[in-house]
Specification:
Layout lengths: L7 H7 L5 E3 L8 H5 L10 E4 L14 E4 H7 L2 E5 L4 E5 L19 E4 L5 E6 H9 L4 H8 L3 H13 L5 E4 L9 H14 L9 E4 L13 H4 L46 E4 L4 H4 L3 E4 L10 E4 L6 E4 L13 H16 L3 H4 L2 H4 L4 H9 L9 H9 L17 H6 L17 H6 L6 E2 L12 E2 L32 E2 L1 H5 L26 H4 L1 H4 L27 H7 L1
Helix pairs in contact: 5-6
Length: 563
Amino acid sequence: MRRQLYDSDYVKQWTDLPVLVRMDSLKYLKATDVFGGEPARLRNQTRILGKDQSAGAAGKQSSMIIPEALRNEWADFVWWDRGSDSPRKLTRDEVGKYSTVGDPLLEGTVEVGLKDGTKVRCRPVFQLIKDYLAHFDPEMVEDLTWAPADAVESLAKELAGDPGNTLFAVGMGPNQFFNNDNKDRAIFLLAALTGNVGKISGNVGSFAGNHRVAFFNGLAQYVGENPFDLELDSVKPARPKVYWKAQSAHYWNHEDHPLKVGLPKMEMIAVNDWWWTTSCEWADIVFAADSWAELKHPDMCCSVTNPFLTVFPRTPLPRIFDTKGDIEILALVGKKLSDLTGDSRFSDMWAFVGRNRTDIYLQRILENSSNTKGYQIRDLEEKAKKGIPTPMLHRTNPRSVGYEQVAESRPWYTKTGRLEFYREEDEFIEAGENLPVHREPIDSTFYEPNVIVSSPCEGLRPQGPEDYGVSLVDISCETRQGRNVVKAWADTKASPHPLIKDGYRFVFHTPKYRHGAHTMPIDTDFVAFLFGPFGDIYRRDKRMPFVAEGYVDINPHDAMELG
């Protein structure tokens, strides 16, 4: 950005970087405030859903669907035309070949006249981000990250010199860190500046993938079935209406107790598992569940990286212990609640479990998911028994995120229809994350935890601890996870982690196993002994607790210093 090496056409066609932001409220400048009138009628593969209209089944939708109230709330946006030295309206239809953004103001400040006769000072998103990034010159980045400054500059020039031809392979482990959203926003910013999103030859992706139910957009047929309007006919679809609310797993994966900041009242914690884990230790109720090798009901999953619809067939293997399948556990709880209350809907919710026809739930998902329409679960299960793979029905193979947007000038699933690097929502502004920022981790840092590293920046106005009734010096474990403090790098570097004074000198990471994923695969002996240098499948040394032993890697320089 400093040397203007970015892909100008991509920035103008596909990003919100030319969009103006009001400096009084830090909100996007709305076209209705400047030009008056109503929001534009959207036509680019978008359907506005009236108050009493139905969106229909997810798998049958061919356009983006935006509720009318939300469309009116979003309205349209404004960019500044340098040629005419005037503001221009921008709708979410206008992306790619439909973009009207010709010669936008990307750097600087403008006073924009409003419909009511007043003026408001505005800056483009590009300028706000550039202001923030000014603090991160290569030398400072080297000091912060240990990445050599000349390597940072060299890589930037290489990426910019061949736009649209870089694949950003991102591992899955870091995506589960506390500040992963800021990290990913930064990666996508770099990719967008160099035209590397939505292209087969240049994109952001992962070389390792978790199971991802998001590809089953018909999943509501199962997890969202209306408990007060159950469909017990096996050939008819459910009528979803969600009455539950999901919470981030991070609330529950927090030391030896749930993180209570922002968490509603908890009445009970129940866990299904096949190993006795720490989650079991802290649960009120633990149900012993089948392992994947013992499944008595079919199941399926898919991944963000491979192209397959993975089907788990029923196994003839006997159960090792007195366990039940996850879905059987839920059904048995439902049956007992029906017995206690006399209300049959608790057990009817799981009616097909009792008939040994859980494949019906899977078939409903398949029929109502865009990437699986036409598949029959019974056919897929038979193929899976024979080792015959089933592909997901994606537009591209290998999968290319954003291909439809770039190839067909289709809006992104955002307010502006563009890749958005600015967040105008109140919670982002209050947290100081309306821009993609660098925060120090909440624990694995040598410095004050969770600090937003920045020099004074007009685009950042976070609410500090005092705004929440918390002392500025309170960096206890609970508090620092929701603490918004901005410090320049020099000040951050001079503020040590509170454990430093107690003699703690190192950061200890516990990554995913090198040859494993999640729990079941790595805990099987044949995989576990591959994990580290101390594996022995024969367990010749009987003092070994298992076919492998845990070990710690240490930086060689630290090891030498310790002697």
